[in-house]
């Protein structure tokens, strides 16, 4: 099962200048708990936004740069190649950015989306979720608090069967 995992604002904003535009500690904890022990597939810019590779995960970086070598990652040049490398993993995660989400959407079986209840100026956006293809199966609302500046909701979608 290929899972897309993302945090996106109401206007589908993901980030600006290769960084997130909000800080939600509980969302980071959820991301870590879901992705630890799995392959994480991302674009080069997303990989380069990390101070260092994330522990206990296999990093697969999709880039057009033929000679790219990031420390602690496997480099590939297509989403198909990334998914092929992750085929032994029962749940690889596509973790961004915007272009990689678009490329990965046709291959995904599940979306784990943290919807941040605000709008942001951004230069990277999450693709629209086509509700003809996706079914919302769980929704868990979290109000803002002393650690979280914005309300947010964890949304889990699964691809509708074609039957």
From TrEMBL:
Family: Belongs to the dihydrofolate reductase family.
Organism: Sinomicrobium weinanense
Role of this protein: Key enzyme in folate metabolism. Catalyzes an essential reaction for de novo glycine and purine synthesis, and for DNA precursor synthesis.
GO BP annotations, alphabetical order: dihydrofolate metabolic process; folic acid metabolic process; one-carbon metabolic process; tetrahydrofolate biosynthetic process
Matching InterPro entries: DHFR, DHFR-like_dom_sf, DHFR_dom
Protein name in the entry: Dihydrofolate reductase
Assigned GO CC terms: cytosol
Domain of life: Bacteria
Pathways involved: Cofactor biosynthesis; tetrahydrofolate biosynthesis; 5,6,7,8-tetrahydrofolate from 7,8-dihydrofolate: step 1/1
EC number(s) from the headed UniProt entry: 1.5.1.3
Catalysed reactions listed for this entry: (6S)-5,6,7,8-tetrahydrofolate + NADP(+) = 7,8-dihydrofolate + NADPH + H(+)
Lineage: Bacteria, Pseudomonadati, Bacteroidota, Flavobacteriia, Flavobacteriales
Keywords: NADP, One-carbon metabolism, Oxidoreductase
A Pfam cross-reference name: DHFR_1
Record's keyword annotation contains Metal-binding: no
GO molecular function, one term: dihydrofolate reductase activity
